[in-house]
């Protein structure tokens, strides 16, 4: 009996000793742990989104690029013609008066237009009454990575130089065109246009046109003078101030170089509100 009691006591003591001993976990491999953490972090990252559409402007988010691409289609022209060096497309809603403007539109002549067409130009018998108002210009127009709204007032125009994408109207990038980009949108309607647009920090001037009966003269003067500035011809700024002079740094460093552009792609678009009616394209050297 005593032997049984002693045995039980000894067994109890052994169990107590075992419970008092702490189990030490093996030290983990640090390098293996880091590798596991990296794999888990990478696995938790979102799947990359779709790539930018091939013709979409750079720097836009994939979502905005898809929206631009979806809306960039220009309507189908009802007729097309050539006037001098202008390639002209007429769309549904264009009128005989508009055809008259473009049937007598002259090719841009940078050498003859040192001044903006808001003053007389005796060299070509041009009167400011047939020209344009020079509104408040902006040298950094719109953010380069945003797609926003761009107004063109009723019975007015907006000039833009720089890379742009205006869905339903036109798209131009200097790198792909091998030319500087410029567009003048004339809204001949009774309602202000509210166009979606992307502009890579371009230059813009809005204003009114003064004579709708001779609008081709304002178009000619504007395309000539703007091309002269971009090509670094001798031009004037406000008053009698010299703006550009060959051999000097081009104002605004058009085409991102000190000598200005070697060639300009100039577009004239006629709209009524947001509806495109006519588009004319030419290259000026």
Strand order of the biggest β-sheet: 1-2-14-13-8-5-10-3
- Give the helix tally: 6
Helix amount, in percent? 10-25%
The main sheet comes to:
8 strands, mixed
Outline:
With 285 residues, the chain is α+β, with helices and mostly antiparallel strands.
Please describe what this structure looks like:
- The protein has one domain.
- A hairpin with a 3-residue loop joins β6 and β7 (170-172).
- The termini are far apart.
- The radius of gyration is 34 Å and the shape is globular.
- An eight-stranded mixed β-sheet has the order 1-2-14-13-8-5-10-3.
- The chain is 25% helix and 27% strand.
- The chain contains six helices and 14 strands.
Question: Which features does this protein show?
Answer:
4-stranded antiparallel β-sheet, disordered N terminus, 27% strand, 6 helices, globular, 285 residues, 8-stranded mixed β-sheet, alpha+beta
How would you summarize the topology of this molecule?
Layout: H1 2-20, H2 30-43, H3 62-71, E1 79-83, E2 86-90, H4 96-103, E3 138-141, E4 148-152, E5 156-161, E6 164-166, E7 170-172, H5 174-177, E8 180-187, E9 193-199, E10 202-208, H6 215-230, E11 235-236, E12 242-244, E13 264-272, E14 275-284
Parallel strand pairs: 8-13
Antiparallel strand pairs: 1-2, 2-14, 3-10, 4-9, 5-8, 5-10, 6-7, 6-9, 11-12, 13-14
């Amino acid at each position: 009996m005593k032997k049984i009691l002693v045995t039980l006591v000894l067994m109890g003591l052994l169990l107590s000793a075992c419970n008092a001993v702490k189990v030490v976990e093996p030290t983990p491999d640090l390098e293996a742990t880091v590798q596991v953490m990296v794999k888990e972090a990478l696995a938790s990252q979102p799947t990359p989104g779709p790539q930018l559409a091939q013709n979409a402007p750079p720097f836009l988010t994939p979502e905005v690029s898809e929206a631009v691409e979806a809306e960039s289609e220009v309507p189908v022209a009802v007729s097309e013609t050539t006037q001098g060096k202008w390639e002209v497309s007429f769309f549904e809603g264009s009128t005989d008066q508009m055809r008259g403007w473009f049937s007598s539109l002259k090719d841009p002549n940078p050498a003859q237009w040192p001044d903006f067409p808001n003053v007389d130009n005796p060299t070509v018998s041009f009167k400011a009454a047939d020209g344009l108002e020079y509104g408040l210009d902006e040298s950094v127009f719109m953010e380069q990575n945003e797609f926003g709204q761009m107004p063109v007032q009723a019975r007015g125009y907006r000039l833009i130089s720089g890379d742009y994408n205006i869905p339903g109207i036109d798209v131009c990038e200097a790198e792909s065109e091998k030319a500087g980009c410029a567009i003048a949108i004339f809204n001949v309607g009774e309602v202000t246009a509210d166009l979606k647009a992307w502009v890579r920090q371009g230059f813009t001037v809005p204003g009114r046109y003064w004579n709708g009966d001779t609008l081709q003269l304002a178009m000619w003067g504007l395309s000539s003078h703007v091309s002269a500035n971009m090509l670094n011809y001798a031009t004037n700024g406000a008053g009698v101030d010299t703006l550009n002079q060959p051999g000097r740094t081009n104002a605004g460093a058009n085409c991102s170089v000190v000598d200005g552009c070697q060639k300009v792609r100039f577009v004239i678009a006629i709209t009524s509100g947001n509806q495109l009616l006519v588009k004319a394209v030419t290259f000026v050297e």
